[in-house]
Amino acid sequence: MVPQYSNPIYDEEAERAVLGAMLEDNLAIPKVMAILGNNCEVFYRIPHQLIYTAILAVYEDKGVGDAVMVGEEIQRTSGLNRIGGSVYLYELVNSVPTSENAEYYAEIVKEKALRRTLIRAGKEIVSSANKEEYNIEEIIDKAEQLIFDVGHSEEKRGFSHIRQVIKDSLKEIEEIFHNKKNLAGVPTGFVDLDILTMGLQPSDFIIIAGRPSVGKSVLAHNIAQYIGVKEQRPVAIFSLEMPKEHVCLRMLSAETQIEFHKLRMGKFSQDDWQWITNAATILGHAPIFINDTPGINVMEMRAEARRLMAEHEDLALIIIDYLQIMGGKYTDRYESSYERVTEISKSLKSLARELNVPVLALSQLSRSIERRGDPRPMLSDLRESGALEQDADLVAFIHREDYYDENAQEGVTELIIKKQRNGPQGAINLKFIKSQMRFETYGQTKG
């Protein structure tokens, strides 16, 4: 429960008015819930927390609620003595001349609750800053997370009764069943991949791995481009290996289907200018955000992602290109790259859960794959693989035969799903058109 402050920041009249209106008029209940949500701790006084919880429980169960039913619910769960007896419920009802102002008072209750939360966050930050044993970057990361949480405090925390979770899940299944919604997650633009994964799922940590120059970055950019251009949803790209200008040129090549090296060298026809300017306009209106800060570490990246999320709450995807060259929290505390990558892996998984956004990280494969008779990738081929295997919700490998055999058909690619926590394994057939920095669907998918 919320601690009781010696100098409380709350409005007794507003709390009583909200509860009285809900008890007096059932139509006020959903209006208040839209503002305050299901968290009883927006109320300062513990009796008010208990009454609010009981109102929501009765309303959820019966679709109506009055002082009698709410009193019975409180008696059953907590005991009426904790709120001052049933007489207090009738006092609340009688103290409200009209329920029409319920939303106005609910906003006051919410604002006071946010102020109390900010005070708690501030005290935690001060406490951490006073502890010399804490690294300053850890303190900053924790402070930013606390402030981010305050800004998203209306999101439900703590336990959820399975009844509500089931209801939400059934609603999504129903939408998919009736074709009101094609995917449960974020579409990638590659139909076969979307069928196998149902899209990139919120809060999933996704790894796409391959040997150097097989097309990892191109595939990630193609996915970002589809989401940004076709879906008009925000995408964040942390480009640790190449400058943002190169990322844009690659996207321009993919959009125009003009060869990348011709764009870079200006060796294209006058007629191509129209295609290029049109494509530049299309890309310029896409909500794609690129961060190419050199040497960015995982805490700095998390902070940048939170800031972008605060500005664009419908953020669809975060891409990291690529994982092994990202810095850890510290610069000199790792005995091995395995320790550093393990920490990064857990931080990225935590970020995906915190923001409820899929995080797609590109990863290198070990050179040992080239010493085997069969170079098709396995989970153990992931560089510093232990933590990555464990933390990732989905692991996909890019495999091209022409990378190992010069006589193989050029560009023919398999995207092999080797791990999918909530779905099947399988392989997607793609064609890598390197000159235009894009992949396209090719052949038949293997389920």
For this entry, give a set of tags.
single chain, 447 residues, alpha/beta, DNAb Helicase, Chain A, Rossmann fold, 2 domains, 17 helices, 49% helix, disordered N terminus
Report strand %.
5-15%
CATH architecture name of the largest domain: 3-Layer(aba) Sandwich
Supply the number of structural domains. 2
Which spans have pLDDT < 50 for at least 5 consecutive residues? 1-6
Give the terminus-to-terminus CA distance. Answer: 49 Å
- The number of helical elements comes to 17
- The helix content is 40-55%
Compact overview of the structure:
The chain is an alpha/beta fold and 447 residues long. The chain has 17 helices and nine strands.
Q: Would you write up a description of this structure?
A:
It is built from 17 helices and 9 strands. 49% of the residues lie in helices and 12% in strands. With 447 residues, it is of the alpha/beta class. The protein folds into 2 domains: 140 residues, DNAb Helicase, Chain A (Orthogonal Bundle), CATH 1.10.860.10; 258 residues, P-loop containing nucleotide triphosphate hydrolases (Rossmann fold, 3-Layer(aba) Sandwich), CATH 3.40.50.300. A hairpin with a 5-residue loop joins strand 7 and strand 8.
